[in-house]
Amino acid sequence: MATGSNPLQDRVAIVTGASSGIGRAIALHLASIGAKLVLNYSSNKLQADLVAKSVETRRRRADYIDIIISRGFAEAGKRYICGIEAAIDTMVKILAKELKGTGITANCVSPGPIATDMFFAGRTKEMVQKAIDECPLRRLGQSEDVVPLVGFLATDASEWVNGQVIRVNGGYV
Ligand SMILES: NC(=O)c1ccc[n+]([C@@H]2O[C@H](COP(=O)([O-])OP(=O)(O)OC[C@H]3O[C@@H](n4cnc5c(N)ncnc54)[C@H](OP(=O)(O)O)[C@@H]3O)[C@@H](O)[C@H]2O)c1
C-alpha cells in the first residue's frame, strides 16, 4: 500500500536509458520511493546490471505498467533542438488529450545542461565553462537535480499536472 515515504509502492515503472546518467538516477530514485522497475538500456550491460543489482529486491514478472520514463531526443544543433522542443511541446499536449478518459497523464521534463557522460562527450573545457557561466546558479546540473520532479510526476499527487513541458535547468536559458 502506498504511504508517505513510499508513494510508488506496488507501482511498476519502465525507465529507458537506465544504465547511466539521468536515467540511472531516476531509476534509483523511483526505487527508493517504492516503485518496481523495468530497466532498459542500449549496449552497456555491465552498468545496467549494476543498476539492477542496486534496486533489486527480487525478480518478478511485470504484468502491468503504471509509469513510463522515456529518455528524450538526441542532442543536435541548437536550432534543431528548438524545433524539437516545439514539436515535443505539441506532442505532449496532443498525447494528454489523446489519453482523455484513461486517467493517464503525459508530461515532459526538459533538463538544461546536466553533468553526464553524454554532456561531456565532444565538449571542450571552454564549452563546459561557458555552460556554467550562462547558468544563474553558476554550475552544471546534476542528474539528482532532475529526479525529484520526475518522482513527483510519477505519484498520484501530480494528477493535475498534465500536458506540460517542465524545465529543470537552474534558470539556464
Ligand atoms: N545531459 C544533458 O545535459 C541533457 C540535457 C537535456 C536532455 N538530455 C537528454 O536526456 C537523455 C539522457 O541523457 P544523459 O545525459 O543521461 O545520457 P547518458 O548518461 O549518456 O545516458 C544515456 C542512456 O541512454 C541509453 N541509450 C542510448 N541510446 C539508446 C537507445 N537507442 N535506446 C535505449 N537506450 C539508449 C544508454 O544506454 P547504454 O549505456 O547501454 O549505451 C544510457 O543508459 C538523453 O535523451 C539526452 O538527450 C540530456
From TrEMBL:
Signal peptide: none annotated. Keywords: Oxidoreductase. One of its GO terms (molecular function) is oxidoreductase activity, acting on CH-OH group of donors. InterPro entries: NAD(P)-bd_dom_sf, SDR_fam. SUPFAM superfamilies: NAD(P)-binding Rossmann-fold domains. Belongs to the short-chain dehydrogenases/reductases (SDR) family. This is Short-chain type dehydrogenase/reductase.
